[in-house]
Every structure is written in structure tokens, then in C-alpha cells.
């Protein structure tokens, strides 16, 4: 028995080692390339130039804003819908699941082309109408709401899976009934009992959404906006070392944001227990 | 006679004769789910301070009745009255009915103490007061040392105790127990049912207890209501229900019954060559059978007797023998274990029924 356990442990260690090498070696090589001064020493020139390049802060802030708003809109749309289906109309669950999974089968380029088609539509005689002005307003380069709409659609399948997994682990109907039996109204039962028990899955949904928004390039680029992913692409073309530095910096920033979100979630959980 | 448990500050936890003991009445209650009728004109009254068990097979409507009383289901017609007041329009969170659910329903993100105090928090009770009361309730259910534990750190029995404390925290007028013991193992179930009964009697709280376990119902309840297909078959004390079942369904659902063919006579029925008076009415037509409990069947060793001993099951003080009559009818009989030793499998026995009225039914299909 002990021998078998040792074998399993060895097998796990081997898999971990192979995976570690697969991920770590290219990153270590990239990092080394980005700081190599070709004279056997190191230099952070590529990074300092990158950080001082015009548009760095603006594009990063825009990406973070887009990510935050996308998470809020997505959760505001998804959580009530999924909970309502669980509590009041369980038969609707497959319908919601299919609808939320639809964006997976639509290529991003096709989605973006569709968005362009919608944005271009609009005859001149509608120019003074609120509809036309809304279409213009959602394309404001300072905060392109149209990107939020696109990102919400793209993140829907991942966020839905995360929330659905959380709901499967909790007997929502019984918890809500128990809360109501204790004197809580519907809304209070949801806020005081259901949502705290979905904290992990909500956090997972948020993390996945943020990762998707920070890394999304195609839609933003085609629609002509400059969030961080588009900015690093355009600023990394000047020389090879800088392009690799841009990749490393991008990875680092996304990791930091995700780690921060996970740490906040864990911190709250630890404080509770 | 019940006595109200008193808190440390002298205030009764659930006054036995005031808010803690209401009269509950179901009047002609009907509820259908599509083509399935769950309740078909249920009429039932739960007296103040009593523990009434709703007993019946799956789908008989017992849980539906409880959920309608709790406010989680709406009835199609009829009335639900608590102390004479129709509560149909009152939402679940204002019904003043504490409930313990079948599945563990503690809030996973809250400690035992916070679970018990949850209702008081919803009611706006101050933090210090609700913690004090929650501690007292935890003591009442014997778990003060688990106050800071989360549900996943407790056993099933402990979780149901906490759920009971939570249900009692708001001093409800009615306590609703929806098969609270069914998920527990046999030993814990036995302990907890004694504890629930003790608390119910101490607090004098009107309690409706749903179960499909007849032993649970008979051992805990003041009265047992047997439901069948949404209708009340009989509501009586456990001893009356067992000893004088009103219908063949009740007789066979509560305890074990054997059916023995019989024929009509002018003043009753004839079973195995002997005449018996009938308890209740004799069906006007069809083949008849008498229903008889194992402890009422008398067997004695007799080589020329009509019964062949088929099996013997040791049950402790008694042994249950299954005998087969010449027409193939199987009858169960409980004998003291010493007496049963004289009737091994394969031996023949004489079979008699006691001189008392018997319950008669049409031949079962």
C-alpha cells in the first residue's frame, strides 16, 4: 500500500515537473532575452522605455475600467437570472444554459463584424434622435461601452459555468426557505444567505471575466480602440527586445490583478472562519 | 401537562399556554400539481401544545400540508387557520412558524451561534441580546460548546439540533418538523427523537411532525394522522391507531397485518371454523378477509394443525413465525422466543384467533 502511495506521489511530481518546465522555460527565456544587454550583463532599458511610453497608463486604466464594468454588468445580468430560474422556474435552466453558451460557438471576428454592422447602420435622418446619439455615445474612445457589451457576451459562458458550479454545491431552494422561515423576505434571503454562499463562484466568474477582458485583442483592435492589449501590441513592434518586454509586462499585470482578486476573496473567507 | 422552559432572565422561552401553543386547523384543503392531487379535502385540527404526526406513504400529501402551513406552497381551495385566523394571505416570513427541514438547512457561511441568532437578526434584535438568546438555545439543545463551529464541522445530528434551536429562536406559535430525522443514522435518530419530544413537551409548543416512519410517529406523537392519497384516513392516539385501526389501510400501514380468508355469517364472520364478531362494517359484496396482527395469532404445536411453519425470525424477546395455511395463505405470528423453539420450520401447528372483534376487508387484489 505504502509503495502504491509512493508511486502515485512520484507520478504526480513528475507531471508537475513536466508542466512546470513547459511553462517556466519559455517565460524564463523571454525574461532573460528582455533584460540581456548583449554584453553578458543585464539592462532594464526595454521596461523603462515601455513604462515611459505615451499611452501606457491611459490604456492600462481603460482596460481595468472595462474589466470592472464588465464584471459588474455581467453579474448584475447573470446572477438574478440564474437565481430566479433556480428558485422559481427550474425548467428554464437548460434554456439559460444554452443561451449563455451561444457565444462560445460564435467566433470573435464574426461577433465583431456583426457589431460593426450594427454600429454602421443608421440612416442620416435619425441623426438627431436619442437612438443615433446612443450609438455614437457607446463608441466614445474614452470609455467605449460597446466593448463592455461585447465583453459581457464573450464572458457569458465562463461566468455562467462558474456560477452554476457554485449553485450546484448549495441547496438554494432549502436555504431560501429556511431564511424565509426565519423571518427574511425574498430579497433579504438572497442577500444574507444565498450570495454569501456563492462568494467563491462569483469571485471565480469575476476572475475569468477580468482575465478575458485584459487579454482581449481582436474586438478592441478591429473596432479601433486602444485598451492595454492593443497598446502593447502597437508599442512592441519597434524592436524585438521591447516586444518581449511588453509580453512579460502584460503577463505580470494580469497575474497581479488576478492574484489581488483571489487574495481579497481568500482574505474575507479566512476572516470569517 | 407541560411546563415552559424558562430562560436565565426568567422570561419563558416559548410560553406553553400563550404564543407557543396555537390551534392549527386544515379545512377542506385541496392542492393539485397538474394531474396529481396532493391534498384532496384534508380536514384536520392540531390541538394547542400537542405533537401531531402526519404519517403516510410517499405522495400522500403530508409534506404538502406542512409546506402550505409554512407558507411555501399555496393551496387551491380550503382554509388554513391558526388560532382561528386564516393565514393564507400571510407571507412565509411573517407566519411565526419555526421549521426544521429534512435536508440539513443550516446556513453554511454562519457559525452555529449565528445560525440560531439569524431569525432574531432578521427581526432587528440587538446583537448582544440575540447572542445571549442564541447561547441559551444552544444550551437547551445541548450544544453550547459548538457555538463557534460551522455546519461542515458538525455531524448530521448536531446540525439538526442547531436547526431545531434556530426554529425555536423566534418563539414560534407552531413548530413544523419535515422528516428531520430521516437523514440520520439509526442510533442518532433514536436519541434525537427523544430529545425533540422532551423539548416539545417542556416548551408546550404545538408541533406538526411529518414522517413516513410509523415507529417514529407512534413513539413521539400525542396523536397520529394517517394520510392516504391526500385524504385523512384516521387521526387517533398511537395506541388507538394500532389497536383499533379505522380502515384496512391504516391497519396495514401501521404495524404488521396478516390477511386470512373468511366467510360471512349472520352475526359476523367465520375464520378457520370459528365465528368472530366484526369490528366495524362487513363489506356487502366480494370475498372477505380478516386482518390480524402477529401478536394476536395463537400457535400451538399440533401435528394435525392447519398451519405449516415456514420461517422463524428471531427478534429478541419474541420470535416471528411465518406459517402457511392449506390454501397458501401466509400468516405471521409473534411468539415468546422460548415458546417458538417448540415450533421449528417444517413443523405443523394449530392456529387460533383471540375472542375479540376482528377487522374485515375485501380480499386484496
TrEMBL record, chain A:
<feature type="transmembrane region" description="Helical">
    <location>
        <begin position="205"/>
        <end position="232"/>
    </location>
</feature>
<dbReference type="InterPro" id="IPR000515">
    <property type="entry name" value="MetI-like"/>
</dbReference>
<keyword id="KW-0472">Membrane</keyword>
<keyword id="KW-1003">Cell membrane</keyword>
<feature type="domain" description="ABC transmembrane type-1">
    <location>
        <begin position="60"/>
        <end position="261"/>
    </location>
</feature>
<keyword id="KW-0997">Cell inner membrane</keyword>
<feature type="transmembrane region" description="Helical">
    <location>
        <begin position="142"/>
        <end position="160"/>
    </location>
</feature>
<keyword id="KW-1133">Transmembrane helix</keyword>
<feature type="transmembrane region" description="Helical">
    <location>
        <begin position="104"/>
        <end position="122"/>
    </location>
</feature>
<protein>
    <submittedName>
        <fullName>Spermidine/putrescine ABC transporter permease</fullName>
    </submittedName>
</protein>
<dbReference type="InterPro" id="IPR035906">
    <property type="entry name" value="MetI-like_sf"/>
</dbReference>
<comment type="similarity">
    <text>Belongs to the binding-protein-dependent transport system permease family.</text>
</comment>
<feature type="transmembrane region" description="Helical">
    <location>
        <begin position="60"/>
        <end position="83"/>
    </location>
</feature>
<keyword id="KW-0813">Transport</keyword>
<feature type="transmembrane region" description="Helical">
    <location>
        <begin position="12"/>
        <end position="35"/>
    </location>
</feature>
<dbReference type="Pfam" id="PF00528">
    <property type="entry name" value="BPD_transp_1"/>
</dbReference>
<feature type="transmembrane region" description="Helical">
    <location>
        <begin position="244"/>
        <end position="264"/>
    </location>
</feature>
<keyword id="KW-0812">Transmembrane</keyword>
<dbReference type="GO" id="GO:0005886">
    <property type="term" value="C:plasma membrane"/>
</dbReference>
<dbReference type="GO" id="GO:0055085">
    <property type="term" value="P:transmembrane transport"/>
</dbReference>
UniProtKB/TrEMBL annotation, chain B:
<dbReference type="InterPro" id="IPR027417">
    <property type="entry name" value="P-loop_NTPase"/>
</dbReference>
<dbReference type="InterPro" id="IPR003439">
    <property type="entry name" value="ABC_transporter-like_ATP-bd"/>
</dbReference>
<dbReference type="InterPro" id="IPR013611">
    <property type="entry name" value="Transp-assoc_OB_typ2"/>
</dbReference>
<dbReference type="InterPro" id="IPR008995">
    <property type="entry name" value="Mo/tungstate-bd_C_term_dom"/>
</dbReference>
<dbReference type="GO" id="GO:0016887">
    <property type="term" value="F:ATP hydrolysis activity"/>
</dbReference>
<keyword id="KW-0547">Nucleotide-binding</keyword>
<dbReference type="InterPro" id="IPR003593">
    <property type="entry name" value="AAA+_ATPase"/>
</dbReference>
<protein>
    <recommendedName>
        <fullName>ABC-type quaternary amine transporter</fullName>
        <ecNumber>7.6.2.9</ecNumber>
    </recommendedName>
</protein>
<dbReference type="GO" id="GO:0005524">
    <property type="term" value="F:ATP binding"/>
</dbReference>
<keyword id="KW-0067">ATP-binding</keyword>
<dbReference type="Pfam" id="PF08402">
    <property type="entry name" value="TOBE_2"/>
</dbReference>
<dbReference type="InterPro" id="IPR050093">
    <property type="entry name" value="ABC_SmlMolc_Importer"/>
</dbReference>
<keyword id="KW-0813">Transport</keyword>
<dbReference type="InterPro" id="IPR017871">
    <property type="entry name" value="ABC_transporter-like_CS"/>
</dbReference>
<feature type="domain" description="ABC transporter">
    <location>
        <begin position="24"/>
        <end position="254"/>
    </location>
</feature>
<dbReference type="GO" id="GO:0043190">
    <property type="term" value="C:ATP-binding cassette (ABC) transporter complex"/>
</dbReference>
<feature type="region of interest" description="Disordered">
    <location>
        <begin position="1"/>
        <end position="20"/>
    </location>
</feature>
<dbReference type="GO" id="GO:0015418">
    <property type="term" value="F:ABC-type quaternary ammonium compound transporting activity"/>
</dbReference>
<dbReference type="Pfam" id="PF00005">
    <property type="entry name" value="ABC_tran"/>
</dbReference>
Amino acid at each position: 500500500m505504502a509503495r502504491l502511495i509512493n508511486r502515485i506521489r512520484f507520478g504526480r511530481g513528475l507531471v508537475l515537473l513536466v508542466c512546470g518546465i513547459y511553462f517556466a522555460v519559455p517565460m524564463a527565456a523571454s525574461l532573460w532575452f528582455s533584460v540581456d544587454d548583449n554584453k553578458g550583463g543585464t539592462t532594464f532599458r526595454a521596461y523603462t522605455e515601455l513604462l515611459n511610453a505615451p499611452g501606457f497608463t491611459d490604456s492600462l486604466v481603460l482596460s481595468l475600467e472595462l474589466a470592472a464594468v464588465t464584471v459588474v454588468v455581467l453579474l448584475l445580468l447573470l446572477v438574478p437570472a440564474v437565481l430566479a430560474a433556480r428558485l422559481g422556474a427550474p425548467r428554464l435552466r437548460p434554456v439559460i444554459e444554452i443561451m449563455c453558451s451561444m457565444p462560445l460557438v460564435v467566433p470573435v471576428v464574426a461577433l465583431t463584424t456583426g457589431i460593426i454592422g450594427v454600429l454602421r447602420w443608421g440612416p442620416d435622418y435619425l441623426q438627431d434622435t436619442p437612438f443615433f446619439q446612443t450609438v455614437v455615445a457607446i463608441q466614445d474612445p474614452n470609455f467605449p461601452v460597446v466593448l463592455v457589451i461585447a465583453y459581457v457576451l464573450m464572458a457569458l459562458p465562463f461566468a455562467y459555468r462558474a456560477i452554476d458550479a457554485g449553485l450546484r454545491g448549495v441547496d438554494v431552494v432549502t436555504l431560501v426557505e429556511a431564511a424565509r422561515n426565519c423571518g427574511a423576505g425574498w430579497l433579504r434571503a438572497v442577500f444574507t444567505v444565498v450570495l454569501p454562499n456563492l462568494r467563491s463562484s462569483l469571485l471565480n466568474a469575476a476572475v475569468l471575466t477580468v482575465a478575458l477582458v485584459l487579454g482581449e485583442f481582436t474586438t478592441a483592435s478591429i473596432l479601433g480602440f486602444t485598451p492595454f492589449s492593443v497598446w502593447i501590441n502597437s508599442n512592441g513592434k519597434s524592436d524585438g527586445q521591447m516586444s518581449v518586454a511588453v509580453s512579460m509586462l502584460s503577463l505580470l499585470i494580469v497575474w497581479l490583478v488576478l492574484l489581488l482578486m483571489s487574495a481579497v476573496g481568500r482574505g474575507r473567507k479566512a476572516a470569517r472562519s | 401537562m407541560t411546563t415552559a422552559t424558562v430562560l436565565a432572565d426568567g422570561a419563558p422561552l416559548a410560553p406553553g399556554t400563550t404564543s407557543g401553543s396555537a390551534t392549527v386547523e386544515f379545512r377542506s384543503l385541496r392542492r393539485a400539481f397538474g394531474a396529481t392531487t396532493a391534498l384532496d379535502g384534508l380536514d384536520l385540527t392540531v390541538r394547542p401544545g400537542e405533537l401531531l404526526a402526519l404519517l403516510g406513504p410517499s405522495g400522500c400529501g403530508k409534506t404538502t400540508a406542512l409546506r402550505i402551513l409554512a407558507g411555501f406552497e399555496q393551496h387551491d381551495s380550503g382554509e388554513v387557520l391558526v388560532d382561528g385566523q386564516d393565514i393564507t394571505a400571510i407571507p412565509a416570513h411573517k407566519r411565526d412558524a419555526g421549521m426544521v427541514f429534512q435536508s440539513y438547512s443550516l446556513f453554511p457561511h454562519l457559525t452555529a451561534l449565528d445560525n440560531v441568532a439569524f431569525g432574531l437578526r432578521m427581526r432587528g434584535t440587538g446583537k448582544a441580546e440575540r447572542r445571549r438568546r442564541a447561547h441559551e438555545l444552544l444550551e437547551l439543545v445541548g450544544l453550547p460548546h459548538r457555538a463557534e463551529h460551522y455546519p461542515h464541522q458538525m455531524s448530521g445530528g448536531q446540525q439538526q439540533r442547531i436547526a431545531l434551536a434556530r426554529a425555536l429562536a423566534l418563539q414560534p406559535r407552531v413548530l413544523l418538523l419535515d422528516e428531520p430525522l430521516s437523514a440520520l443514522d439509526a442510533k442518532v435518530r433514536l436519541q434525537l427523537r427523544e430529545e425533540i419530544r422532551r423539548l416539545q413537551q417542556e416548551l408546550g409548543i404545538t408541533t406538526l411532525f411529518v414522517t413516513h416512519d410509523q415507529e417514529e410517529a407512534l413513539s413521539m406523537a400525542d396523536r397520529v394522522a394517517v394520510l392516504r392519497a391526500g385524504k385523512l384516513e384516521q387521526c387517533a392516539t398511537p395506541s388507538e391507531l394500532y389497536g383499533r385501526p379505522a380502515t384496512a389501510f391504516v391497519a396495514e400501514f401501521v404495524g404488521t397485518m396478516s390477511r386470512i380468508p373468511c366467510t360471512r355469517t349472520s352475526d359476523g364472520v367465520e375464520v378457520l371454523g370459528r365465528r368472530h364478531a366484526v369490528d366495524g362494517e362487513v363489506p356487502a359484496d366480494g370475498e372477505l378477509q380478516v386482518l390480524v396482527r402477529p401478536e394476536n395469532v395463537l400457535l400451538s404445536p399440533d401435528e394435525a394443525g392447519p398451519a405449516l411453519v415456514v420461517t422463524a425470525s428471531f427478534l429478541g424477546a419474541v420470535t416471528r413465525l411465518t406459517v402457511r395455511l392449506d390454501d397458501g395463505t401466509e400468516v405471521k405470528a409473534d411468539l415468546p422466543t422460548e415458546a417458538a423453539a417448540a415450533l421449528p420450520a417444517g413443523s405443523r401447528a394449530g392456529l387460533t384467533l383471540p375472542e375479540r372483534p376482528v377487522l374485515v376487508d375485501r380480499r386484496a387484489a
